[in-house]
Automatic annotation (TrEMBL):
<keyword id="KW-0029">Amino-acid transport</keyword>
<keyword id="KW-1133">Transmembrane helix</keyword>
<feature type="transmembrane region" description="Helical">
    <location>
        <begin position="31"/>
        <end position="55"/>
    </location>
</feature>
<dbReference type="GO" id="GO:0022857">
    <property type="term" value="F:transmembrane transporter activity"/>
</dbReference>
<feature type="transmembrane region" description="Helical">
    <location>
        <begin position="76"/>
        <end position="96"/>
    </location>
</feature>
<dbReference type="InterPro" id="IPR035906">
    <property type="entry name" value="MetI-like_sf"/>
</dbReference>
<feature type="domain" description="ABC transmembrane type-1">
    <location>
        <begin position="31"/>
        <end position="173"/>
    </location>
</feature>
<dbReference type="GO" id="GO:0006865">
    <property type="term" value="P:amino acid transport"/>
</dbReference>
<dbReference type="InterPro" id="IPR043429">
    <property type="entry name" value="ArtM/GltK/GlnP/TcyL/YhdX-like"/>
</dbReference>
<comment type="function">
    <text>Part of the binding-protein-dependent transport system for glutamine; probably responsible for the translocation of the substrate across the membrane.</text>
</comment>
<keyword id="KW-0812">Transmembrane</keyword>
<dbReference type="GO" id="GO:0043190">
    <property type="term" value="C:ATP-binding cassette (ABC) transporter complex"/>
</dbReference>
<keyword id="KW-0472">Membrane</keyword>
<dbReference type="InterPro" id="IPR010065">
    <property type="entry name" value="AA_ABC_transptr_permease_3TM"/>
</dbReference>
<dbReference type="InterPro" id="IPR000515">
    <property type="entry name" value="MetI-like"/>
</dbReference>
<dbReference type="Pfam" id="PF00528">
    <property type="entry name" value="BPD_transp_1"/>
</dbReference>
<protein>
    <submittedName>
        <fullName>Amino acid ABC transporter permease protein</fullName>
    </submittedName>
</protein>
Length: 173
């Protein structure tokens, strides 16, 4: 291929100097928006994922059904369709702007995958851990918060790291 890349033009898209000040250009502004959307979506992804994983492992038939419908519904539809539905259909109804729609769409999408990772981590904790917590009188909240979830985080950290990378890479423009 005979094309010569014009590297001297790249700095013009990072920042430019005007009126005695440096201003971010398109690439730098895009990077900042990507970081903002990804950081907020990550928080909501972990929240949706944890709630859904706890519902999927609960004794409640209704909770398991809702969690199963959410995970299967999100995982079996393309992200672009979900973004279009949120932006053009549900966004105007609930008053979401473009930024919030992007964060919410990514959080819903990645939350379904994160829920399955966390569910697998919860199922990987031996039942003896739950029984030991119950026998020493720990409440259900402290059982999960102090004993179970630290083990789940340790077991699921590598796949959760992959989900963070996937979250950044699948950011809607």
């Amino acid at each position: 291929m005979g094309y010569r890349w014009q590297w001297e033009r790249v700095p013009n898209y990072l920042a430019f100097y005007e009126d005695g000040e440096w201003w971010p250009a398109e690439l730098l502004e895009g990077l900042l928006v990507t970081i903002k959307i990804s950081a907020l979506a990550l928080v909501f992804t972990l929240l949706f994922g944890l709630i859904t994983a706890l519902l999927k492992t609960s004794n409640s038939v209704v909770g398991r059904g809702i969690a199963h419908a959410y995970v299967e519904g999100i995982r079996n539809t393309p992200l672009l369709v979900q973004i279009y539905l949120l932006y053009f259909v549900f966004g105007p109804i609930i008053g979401l702007d473009r930024f919030s729609t992007a964060v919410f769409a990514l959080a819903l999408f990645q939350g379904a995958y994160t829920a399955e990772i966390l569910r697998a981590g919860l199922n990987g904790v031996p039942k003896g851990q739950f029984e030991a917590c119950r026998s020493i009188g720990l409440s259900r909240f402290y059982t999960y918060f102090d004993v179970i979830l630290p083990q789940v985080v340790r077991r699921t950290l590598p796949p959760l790291t992959n989900e963070v990378v996937s979250l950044i890479k699948t950011r809607p423009s």
